[in-house]
Design brief:
By secondary structure, this protein is of the alpha/beta class. The chain has 20 helices and 16 strands. It folds into 3 domains: about 260 residues, Alpha-Beta Barrel (TIM Barrel); about 90 residues, no CATH class; about 140 residues, Alpha-isopropylmalate synthase LeuA, regulatory domain (Double Stranded RNA Binding Domain, 2-Layer Sandwich). The C terminus is likely disordered.
Length: about 525
């Protein structure tokens, strides 16, 4: 058994709050969807706005070998004949092989929204489908509000489907437009409709009741062979059925072919790519593709997963392009620590692991958080192993802030270092105290490690951990660093925000020095290091 996959991220997905895609964005996502194995990609509503029109104009110039681009619209307006209707003409002009049109299935919408007789609505459906078929289009008919319409008047809802079927529609899609139908009711209705009609049935589910994925699966169990949805569940209100869950559920759990195993292995990448192009934050807890989907925090869980992953994982993460992670926290046991150490290439014996567990629990009690600061965690393990080079030590730190005669704020930081048995002083100004500290640290270290100029800060976060303590509150600072090709995160905690910032800044530099090829050659000899990096 196979199921046709219909993606509407570029149309229905863009109706979600905070979702905006340019025509070029749509093309990029469409190309990614084709590579993944999506059968039909709905690009938008041609003629409704310049952006969608631009997408179809560009799509006409491109080769689509593995997928069909689909234009979306409605049945004709009651005041137009089919050959005069601007909406139907725009569908023809889009020059796609496939078109998808929606029509009314619910008497409430026919009589209240369209304000026309029920029989006239059937004629709108029949004539619109027939007109598009006459122009050589494959027609997918979306029966809008079908389940609400069926619950209200099943006889009329079925008549709307027969009108589309008799006019030549290739696929009849039952839409849970309001997203409120429950899986057991939906399955009963789909089974009934499947027994009444000969045309292929599809499902288009919204997630207002939290059941969009479950409803899509239930529809397939009841006979549907066409599933519509969006990547990451994007869409109006609470979103559409999330294809990132529907597809692996169908393929891995129900044994229904959708894409190749190799294509399924790129699912997490497709999810991340779509969020990135749409400028949306990924959902860590998203099933299958989220960063936390195969992440284990409890020590008992990690211990079991290290022996047999299926003890706490329902599928192999690699099957969907994800990976297994173990978190380090005050809930960790030795299994967590040793798992993370193996990931970092550190051979940690049982005694060191036990020491690391106790050290981490004490630090997290103080407010440290290593789940988002893996670079600081690695440095901690290497320090416990006495395997951490002494790159530099801070002797004294002073930060001064004031204003000049023109009321411009000036911030200056001065640092006293001990670097490879040499004492050095450094001073710098900055746009704020943390920037001044970072600049002073560079000034003091650059003669010893000149290649540090590749490192820069990409993010800086502060969280107040004990707000009840007022100005004496403990704060946690998280800093993301980069050298242009990789990023790493460090943490610092103190009741002094400058001290916490220094901890995170210093860890970031130490981590880079630890992994830099230049440092690895001669970390103890500044002359050799300078020569190697020049």
């Amino acid at each position: 058994m196979t199921v046709e996959l219909f993606d509407t991220t570029l149309r229905d997905g863009t109706q979600g709050e905070h979702v905006t895609l340019s025509a070029r964005d749509k093309v990029r996502i469409a190309q990614k969807l084709e590579a993944f194995g999506i059968d039909v990609i709905e690009g938008g509503w041609p003629g409704s706005n310049p952006k969608d029109q631009a997408f179809f104009d560009e799509a006409q110039t491109m080769e689509w070998d593995q997928t069909s681009i689909c234009a979306f619209g409605s049945t004709r307006h009651a005041s137009y004949a089919p050959d005069e209707d601007p909406n139907l003409q725009a569908l023809i002009d889009a020059e796609t092989d496939v078109v998808c049109i929606f029509g009314k299935s619910w008497t409430l919408h026919v009589e209240q929204a369209l304000d026309i007789p029920l029989e006239q609505n059937l004629d709108l459906i029949r004539s619109s489908v027939a007109f598009l078929r006459e122009h050589g289009k494959r027609v997918i008919y979306d029966a809008e509000h079908f389940f609400d319409g069926y619950a209200d008047n099943p006889e009329y809802a079925l008549k709307t489907l027969r009108a589309a079927e008799n006019a030549g529609s290739d696929t009849l899609v039952l839409c849970d437009t309001n997203g409120g139908t429950l899986p057991h009711d939906l399955r009963d209705i789909v089974e009934t409709v499947h027994g009444e009609l000969d045309t292929t049935l599809g499902i288009h589910a919204h997630n207002d009741g939290g059941c969009a994925v479950a409803n899509s699966l239930a529809a397939v169990r009841a006979g549907a062979r066409h599933v519509q949805g969006t990547i990451n569940g994007l869409g109006e209100r609470c979103g559409n059925a999330d294809l990132c869950s529907v597809i692996p559920d169908l393929q891995l759990k129900m044994g229904i072919d959708c894409v190749t195993d190799e294509q399924l292995g790129t699912l997490a990448d497709l999810s991340r790519f779509t969020n990135e192009v749409a400028n949306l934050d990924p959902v860590d807890g998203a099933p299958y593709v989220g960063r936390s989907a195969f992440t284990h925090k409890g020590g008992i869980h990690v211990s079991a997963v290290m022996k047999e992953p299926s003890t706490y994982e329902h599928v192999e993460p690699e099957a969907v392009g994800n990976r297994r992670r173990a978190l380090v926290s005050d809930m960790s046991g030795k299994s967590n620590i040793r798992y993370k150490a193996e990931e970092l290439g550190i051979d940690l014996d049982s005694e060191d692991a036990a020491q690391a567990v106790e050290r981490i629990k004490k630090l997290e009690h103080m407010g440290y958080e290593f789940q988002g600061a893996e670079a600081s965690f690695e440095l901690l393990l290497r320090t416990i192993q006495s395997n951490m080079p002494d790159f530099f030590e801070l002797d004294r730190m002073r930060v001064w802030s004031g204003q000049d005669d023109d009321s411009n704020q000036t911030v200056e930081a001065s640092l006293a270092f001990c670097v490879q048995d040499q004492r050095t002083l450094a001073v710098a100004e900055g746009n704020g105290p943390v920037d001044a500290l970072s600049s002073a640290m560079r000034n003091g270290l650059e003669s010893f490690y000149p290649y540090l100029d590749a490192v820069y800060l990409t993010d800086y976060k502060v969280r107040v951990l004990t707000p009840q303590d007022g100005t004496a509150a403990t704060v946690r600072v998280l800093i993301e660093h980069s050298d242009g090709s990789e990023t790493w995160n460090t943490v610092g905690v103190s009741s002094n925000i400058l001290d916490a910032s220094w901890q995170a800044l210093a860890d970031g530099v130490r981590y880079y020095l630890l992994h830099s090829p230049d440092t690895n050659r001669a970390a103890s000899d500044p002359a050799d290091v300078a020569t190697a990096s020049s």
